[in-house]
UniProtKB/TrEMBL annotation:
Name the UniProt record assigns to this protein: Ribosomal protein S7
InterPro entries reported in the protein's UniProt record: Ribosomal_uS7, Ribosomal_uS7_bac/org-type, Ribosomal_uS7_CS, Ribosomal_uS7_dom, Ribosomal_uS7_dom_sf
Annotated PANTHER family: RIBOSOMAL PROTEIN S7
SUPFAM superfamilies the record matches: Ribosomal protein S7 (SSF47973)
GO terms of molecular function: rRNA binding; structural constituent of ribosome
Keyword Signal recorded: no
Entries under Pfam families matching the protein: Ribosomal_S7
GO-annotated cellular components: small ribosomal subunit
Biological process according to GO: translation
PROSITE patterns: RIBOSOMAL_S7
Length: 155
């Protein structure tokens, strides 16, 4: 008997921007179940972006997220006696998830004093196509390009 397909999770829109994508981002940002703290950090970062640019902070965030999305990733597969990295295209949902996690991780590694400020600056850098998140995305793409010869071993 075949297994049933998993139901796609429906995210409720957030209270301020009324966007389910923001809720997904906040869920990734959240630590130890403290969603209110995660919302406060995200909304604070959006306010900081509003101060920097008169354009809508949500549009800047979405554009920055789009700039960070990787299109391929490498997966290890054991062939013979060695592991080889096989480039695999990423589905559109996973692209968004990976971009969010990459943005949050790189923001937390920054040297500024509050997470709100770190996140705002990382989003701003992603919007302008610079910074650590863009470097990491390009590094993922370089690894996939270097292992292009193994792409016919797809899973």
């Amino acid at each position: 008997m075949r297994q049933r397909r998993k139901k796609e999770k429906v995210y409720m829109p957030d209270p301020l921007f009324n966007d389910p994508l923001v809720t997904r981002f906040v869920n990734n940002l959240m630590k130890n179940g403290k969603k209110n703290v995660a919302y406060r950090i995200f909304y604070g970062a959006m306010e900081r972006i509003d101060i920097i640019e008169e354009k809508s902070s949500l549009d800047i965030w979405k554009h920055g997220l789009k700039n960070v999305m990787p299109h391929v990733e490498v997966k290890s597969r054991r062939m013979g006696g060695s592991n080889i990295q096989i480039p695999v295209p990423i589905s559109s949902k996973n692209k968004v998830t990976k971009a969010m996690k990459l943005l949050i991780k790189c923001a937390s590694l920054r040297k500024e004093n509050t997470m709100e400020k770190k996140l705002a600056l990382e989003i701003w850098d992603a919007y302008n196509e610079q910074g650590e998140t863009i470097k990491r995305k390009e590094n993922i793409h370089k690894m996939a390009e270097a292992n292009k010869a193994f792409s016919h071993f797809r899973f």
